[in-house]
Specification:
The complex is a heterodimer of chains A (257) and B (802). Chain A has 257 residues and is an alpha/beta fold. Helices cover 24% and strands 23% of the residues of chain A. Chain A is globular and about 45 Å long. Chain B is globular and about 90 Å long. The chains are: A alpha/beta (257), B alpha+beta (802). Chains A and B meet through α1 and β6 of A and α9, α12 and β18 of B.
């Protein structure tokens, strides 16, 4: 049996979803290491198969969300990060991590700005899969739910660009309801190569069935996992090169374990 | 980095002053010490044969303040009621500590720590313990709502971080009392008083920005609206934590290094403890601004990460937070018995030019104080670097029994705790002789449908969703029962349930406050608050025999015998109920002088008692919500009504203040809750909702807000005195009652399970329609409304204002 894939979770001052994200990654088979960014160096990604940027408020997000974290990463990691991505390493950014990846230019150009309501929003949202080939979405049905919790989640791009992103398969997820004013209700994006993925919703918060707000929510495999588990499982398969025997393209439960 | 350059302190001659002059000195220095206190201070210095320094006086003022010493809760009170006069030998001792200790003795091994640490711990499983702490931040929030609430959260989170050798904060709760958001400006009779809507918005944002940034889910709360809170809003901030049982005990010893961890020290937050121990007036809005600070949640997050890492490496010997009184109270807690030295010139500062006393008592936020073995200092500093914060050795413990504070080689403070003792005990008078309630109210209601709509839209009932959605209640990924849930994800729940990493057990967190009841019958208010809290813990899946509670009182003017009398009565109520339920108090806090001198005279808050609690949830699969799940289920009402309407939302809306407030039979209720816990464990209950404010009418409507079916109830099936009208049956708020949704094939088993209690089938859910239908025994339809329409009214109550 090959070694377990390894995830490095960057911890900026103010990153606060790292523990539950590590829990989710370990649940699908990763080993994980939470790395405070003060310890970040050019060699930090050497053993990593996944670079994880978890949610939170890096440096308080007092400047535009993710901006200071972007500068920190560029200062400490720049060349090795681009090397990591170029060699096919997987990078996932959730919420604040998505904001940081966008600022770093690793995802399609655009900005995540303040929600149209001007407020922080914590609620569950229905999502629509827009690119079936995106690794994290392998085991997810066309529509599914995840919670969001953000003040700056409204994705905006230069005139006409969002349409291009759809054409190129860069838009991976959209909100079914307009929750924050995003262009075309974009909720998640990936790069052209499909190994950098960012989304505002929090898959790590729906690891277990019991995370769902409705006590009658049925897990797809009638087990105790929520959609977040299946999301990370897709990434696991991608980084381990596991052959995908089954994928779930409908809302019907898949038989996974 | 900034440090002080020289010691700035002075001798304050007081050995020769008389009582009057001593009191004048106290006022001049804003020490908030009484003449009697000052005489005690003088005696200490006469024995010492020297004059005090200003640093010492400031330290004594902080440690003897109401905020730190709870002097009113320790006072001897002669309490007068219609039954005669009695002497209460300390409210804390009589009504909090003694009943709790009685319960500890009955439940060995359950309460692992109470009253002496930052928070009390109860056992969760063989390895872990859980705790809850609630603080108030009323005065700062009145002056600067955003910053006041912000630092209120910051402070209580540090309490948890400083409990034991560092508990992990896993959930926040926030309870507010405000004036109504639609209060006309002309009603507000005081200069610079912030409108209730401004207070509410500021406070909510303050809570949001601190809790969300720290990554602690805000999972529970409440808002009460009453004109009495216009001038003195109440802001309760609570945090629950988890710790390994082995990390609960901590003990100081000599030879330890004292380390300041976290933020730097500045002039912000000077004299917060003494400030909060006095009443607000118009001048407060100008003069006391330095007592309010701005929080920095990211600094506190870094401190939290560092402390939890240091704890896991077993580096910490003793730990406390820097709260009221700053270094002086932290050092006092650590060094007053063992003795030791602090060197103020080593403290890193935010700004130059601080005087000696300012460094020592500043309440600058985001600071913790650790005591560690000398060989562990290097690793603590390393961890501070890793997490991006600062650790500085500022002193050591030495076994001398004396606290010495040095500043650039000068001894600015030397206090011998063996001789300084506690402040003189206060003697107080209280009185509670209310008019007898009246029973001549008709309670006839020709249009119950309209009344139900009004009550659902009442500020005190309507949805808190606009506020709740601004709080991240899911971070940490352990929120099993969310504040809004049910099939649509937006129906109200009775408590929150938090999963605990590494354990198969979870924690239920609930709270109750009924200030309206307290206006008429504070004793019954106290009992009802304990009852409601325990009930909510149990019906969400908590174990009724593994629950602990906290008392947090806010009082107007304790120098007024009537107001103090209401407090005494409320304490009697909570003590009696706590004993009856076997739910010990493990922590508590009080806040006095919540009154304001308006242009038209003083306005006090009603005596407000927040009871919050935690309970062990054994099986996360049995976490129970309050929302309807089936369209073919049966609705059962557990517990009996009394028909008494005093304190209810309905009575309040009708301007009735003379009705009798309901009492509760706690022993009967506990038996019922134990049976309920067993029924939940056995999977016999689909959902359960407590009957609280708004009574059955609100409970049944709220249960239906998951929109899983229509609901039909027969009001005459409700167990209440035969004379009770439909309005009484629908809106009375008598405690101990729970609305249950049960699968039809479980009903008979459930009723025999509850054979010794009132368990009435009052109706059922229906797939035939989407309405709430309330009939009487004759079949007359008293209420018929679409549940979705009722839900809209409930949902939109605050929308226009928030």
């Amino acid at each position: 049996m090959a070694r377990q894939p390894h995830a490095i979770l960057l911890k900026f001052p103010g990153t606060n979803c790292d523990a539950e994200t590590a829990r989710a990654l370990e649940a699908v088979g990763f080993t994980s290491e939470i790395l405070p960014t003060s310890q970040l160096g050019p060699d930090s990604l050497e053993n990593a198969d996944l670079l994880m940027l978890s949610g939170g408020f890096s440096y308080g997000d007092y400047v535009m969300a993710g901006r200071l974290a972007q500068l920190r990463v560029e200062e400490r990691l720049s060349a090795s990060l681009h090397g990591f991505v170029a060699e096919g390493g997987f990078v996932l950014g959730v919420c604040n991590g998505f904001q940081i990846l966008t600022k770093l230019g690793l995802l399609p150009a655009g900005s995540l700005i303040e929600n149209t309501s001007g407020r922080f929003i914590c609620r569950w949202t229905r999502l629509q899969v827009k690119n079936r080939d995106a690794a994290p979405l392998t085991y997810l049905p066309d529509t599914f739910e995840l919670p969001i919790a953000h003040a700056e989640g409204r994705f905006v791009a230069a005139e006409g660009m969002a349409e291009e992103y759809f054409k190129d398969g860069l838009v991976t997820l959209t909100y079914i309801d307009d929750v924050n004013g995003s262009d075309h209700q974009i909720a998640g994006l990936q790069n052209l190569e499909g190994n950098v993925f960012g989304l505002m919703p929090h898959p790590e918060r729906f690891l277990y069935r019991q995370h769902h707000y409705d006590p009658d929510w049925k897990a797809p495999a009638n087990d105790h996992w929520g959609w977040g588990y299946h999301f990370f499982r897709g990434i696991y398969d991608h980084v381990t090169g596991a052959k995908v025997f089954e994928s779930c393209t409908t809302t019907e439960p898949s038989s996974s374990g | 980095m900034i440090f002080t350059e020289k010691a700035v302190f002075r001798q304050v001659p007081l050995l020769e002053l008389d009582g009057m002059a001593l009191f004048e000195l106290s006022k001049e220095m804003k020490l908030s010490l009484s003449e009697e206190d000052m005489l005690a201070v003088q005696t200490y210095y006469r024995e010492s044969g020297r004059e005090p320094t200003d640093v010492e006086l400031e330290v004594i003022a902080q440690t003897w303040s109401e905020h730190c010493k709870h002097r009113i809760f320790s006072a001897e009170i002669s309490h007068q009621t219609a039954a005669g006069e009695e002497v209460v030998d300390g409210l804390f001792k009589t009504y909090i500590k003694l009943p709790s200790e009685e319960i500890f003795a009955c439940k060995p091994g359950f309460v692992l720590s109470a009253f002496h640490d930052n928070a009390g711990f109860i056992k969760l499983d063989e390895e872990r313990a859980i705790c809850l702490k609630v603080e108030t931040h009323n005065h700062p929030s009145a002056l600067e709502p955003y910053a006041g609430a912000n630092t209120g959260i910051g402070g209580v989170v540090r309490d948890i971080l400083g409990a034991g050798l560092g508990a992990k904060p896993v959930a926040n709760i926030d309870v507010f009392c405000f004036g109504a958001p639609d209060t006309p400006q002309a009603v507000i009779r005081g200069e610079d008083v912030i409108h209730p809507l401004g207070i509410m918005r500021g406070v909510v944002r303050g809570v949001r920005d601190y809790g969300n940034r720290m990554g602690i889910p805000t999972t529970g709360g409440a808002i009460q609206f009453d004109p009495a809170y216009i001038y003195n809003p109440l802001v309760y901030c609570g945090t629950a934590g988890v710790i390994h049982i082995k990390d609960i005990t901590k003990e100081m010893s000599s030879g330890l290094k004292i380390i300041a961890l976290g933020g730097r020290t500045g002039r912000d937050g000077l004299k917060g403890a003494t400030f909060s121990s006095a009443a607000l007036d118009t001048d407060s809005h100008e003069e006391d601004q330095t007592a309010v600070q701005i929080g920095n949640p990211i600094e506190e997050k870094k401190v939290a990460d560092c402390i939890l890492a240091a704890r896991d490496e077993s580096l910490i010997t003793f730990l406390t937070d820097c709260g009221a009184g700053g270094f002086s109270s932290a050092a006092g807690e650590m060094l007053s018995d063992v003795g030791g030295e602090i060197f103020l010139e080593r403290c890193p500062l935010k700004e130059p030019g601080l005087e000696s006393w300012q460094v020592f008592i500043s309440e600058s936020q985001e600071r913790m104080v650790l005591a560690v073995e000398p060989e562990r200092v290097a690793r603590i500093k390393e961890l501070a670097g890793i997490y991006g914060t600062e650790a500085t050795v500022i002193g050591q413990s030495d076994g001398s029994g004396i606290l010495r504070v040095w500043h650039h080689g000068e001894l600015v403070c030397e206090l011998d705790n063996n001789r300084l003792h506690n402040p003189p005990r206060q003697l107080r008078k209280s009185r509670w002789m209310p008019p007898a309630p009246e029973s001549n109210h008709a309670w006839n209601d020709e249009n119950l449908g309209a009344s139900l709509e009004e009550v659902l839209g009442d500020f005190n009932i309507c949805s808190r969703a606009p506020v709740i959605r601004e709080y991240d209640h899911e971070v940490q990924g352990n929120t099993l029962l969310k504040p809004l849930a049910g099939a649509c994800g937006d129906a109200p729940q009775d408590a929150s349930v938090i999963g605990i990493d590494g354990s198969d057990k979870s924690m239920s967190i609930a709270l109750s406050l009924l200030p309206e009841w307290g206006k008429y019958n504070p004793y019954r208010m106290g009992k009802a608050c304990v009852d409601e809290c325990i009930r909510q813990l149990v019906l969400t899946g908590g174990d009724p025999d593994q629950a602990a509670i906290l008392d947090n009182f806010c009082v107007g003017n304790p120098d007024d015998p009537e107001e103090l009398g209401a407090l005494v009565e409320a304490c009697k109520g909570i003590a009696e109920a706590a004993l009856a339920y076997g739910a010990p108090f493990v922590s508590g806090k009080d806040s006095f002088y919540n009154y304001f001198e308006t242009e038209d005279g003083a306005v006090s808050i009603p005596t407000t008692c927040l009871i919050s609690g935690i309970a062990v949830v054994h099986d996360r699969a049995r976490v129970t919500g309050a929302s309807l799940r089936r369209s073919d289920s049966v609705l059962c009402l557990l517990g009996e009504g009394s028909g008494l309407m005093g304190g209810s939302i309905y009575a309040r809306r009708h301007g009735i203040t003379t009705a009798e407030v309901p009492d509760i039979d706690c022993a009967g209720a506990l038996d019922r809750y134990r049976l309920l816990a067993r029924a939940i464990k056995g999977g016999q209950v689909l959902s359960a909702h407590d009957l609280g404010e708004g009574g059955l009418g609100v409970a049944v409507a709220e249960m239906g807000f998951s929109l899983q079916g229509g609901m039909e109830i027969d009001i005459d099936q409700v167990d209440a005195p035969a004379s009770a009208t439909a309005a009484q049956r629908l809106f009375e708020e008598t405690g101990g009652r729970i609305l249950l949704e049960v699968a039809s094939d479980q009903v008979e088993a459930l009723r025999s399970h509850f054979s010794t209690h009132s368990c009435k089938i009052i109706g059922h859910s229906s797939s035939a329609h989407e309405n709430l239908v309330i009939t009487d025994a004759t079949g007359t339809r008293l209420v018929e409304a679409k549940l979705s329409s009722l839900k809209e009214i409930w949902k939109n109550g605050l929308k226009a204002y928030y």
